[in-house]
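Progress note, sequence design subtask.
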């Protein structure tokens, strides 16, 4: 069964790690959010691509989810001495990724090509695609007039709530392999990611929502028991969709493209689509593989 997985954030990467364990490399393609990408220290930073890469390579901190477990921060500390307090922690090993990617693209590689080289360099056989090869940055227009890039909002400012709107700036073209991958899929899985900053970013690209809408789609709820497992989603839904945080709000947010949903045991009230209840909190790798297996066994009925 050909699966395309839409991913962003730490939760998305964790479930992808489980899926990659049970689905052969030729049958699983991930399309990863690049709306978080930005230039920092002159380097092109792609947090969600790197979070996927480190989780699939077994390099990530199981708890934190991003960065390389055991990494040191000597360059970061030195930079803080040179140019004052820093707000985005780039580890010494993590820097190799950013330097490699920045050089590859300076030498003319596309982000898709640089990503493929980085994945191979980290021993990952599954196909991991950036949603776009060009800048498509998520921008927060705040009620006080500030415009913040995602990580300026998420990390530097610590998710301020005065959001006027969220926009996606830059090229609306998906990376070349994205729409063909969706068209070749038997099933699309939307990871337990924040819809606004991890999935809408992908669906907003030309042709992607339409291609996905013609496929069976399973979404994994990022809302558990009325709370966001990670991050600010629990208050973004009431603010931006005027909905209480719930799996039903997630189904409705995606506007009819979701055919089935995976929720935490006990959360399946009034969803109106086929629902799988499970233990969806992934505290360790066994959880990731178990949940992935349950989803794949259950999703067979939809294809
Ligand atoms: N998240 C933080 O909360 N603080 C950080 O200093 C930080 C650094 C960082 C460096 C590389 C990277 O790939 C991710 C990093 N993240 C950090 C996570 C980042 O904010 C991602 O956008 C989140 O994973 C959500 O997508």
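Output:
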């Amino acid at each position: 069964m050909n699966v395309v997985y839409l991913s962003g954030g730490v939760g998305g990467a964790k479930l992808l790690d489980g899926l990659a364990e049970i689905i052969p490399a030729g049958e699983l393609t991930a399309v990863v959010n690049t709306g978080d990408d930005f230039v920092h220290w002159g380097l092109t930073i792609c947090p969600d691509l790197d979070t996927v890469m480190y989780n699939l390579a077994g390099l990530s901190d199981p708890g934190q989810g991003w960065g390389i477990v055991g990494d040191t921060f000597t360059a970061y500390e030195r930079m803080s001495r040179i140019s004052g307090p820093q707000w985005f922690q780039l580890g010494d090993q993590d820097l190799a990724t950013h330097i490699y990617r920045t050089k590859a693209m300076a030498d003319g590689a596309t982000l898709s090509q640089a990503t493929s080289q980085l994945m191979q360099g980290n021993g990952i056989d599954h196909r991991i695609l950036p949603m776009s090869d060009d800048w498509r940055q998520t921008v927060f227009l705040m009620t006080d007039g500030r415009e913040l890039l995602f990580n300026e909002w998420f990390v530097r400012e610590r998710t301020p709530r005065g959001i006027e709107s969220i926009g996606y700036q830059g090229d609306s073209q998906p990376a070349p392999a994205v729409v063909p991958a969706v068209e070749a899929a038997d099933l699309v899985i939307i990871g337990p990611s924040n819809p606004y900053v991890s999935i809408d970013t992908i669906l907003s690209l030309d042709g992607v929502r339409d291609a996905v809408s013609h496929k069976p789609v399973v979404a994994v709820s990022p809302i558990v028991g009325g709370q966001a497992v990670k991050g600010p989603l629990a208050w973004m839904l009431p603010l931006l969709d005027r909905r209480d945080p719930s799996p039903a709000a997630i189904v409705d947010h995606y506007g009819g493209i979701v055919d089935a949903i995976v929720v935490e045991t006990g959360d399946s009230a009034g969803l109106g689509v086929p629902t799988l209840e499970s233990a969806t909190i992934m505290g360790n790798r066994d959880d990731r593989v178990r949940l992935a297996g349950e989803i794949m066994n259950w999703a067979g009925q939809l294809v």
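The mean pLDDT is 96. Work on this subtask will continue into the next period as scheduled.
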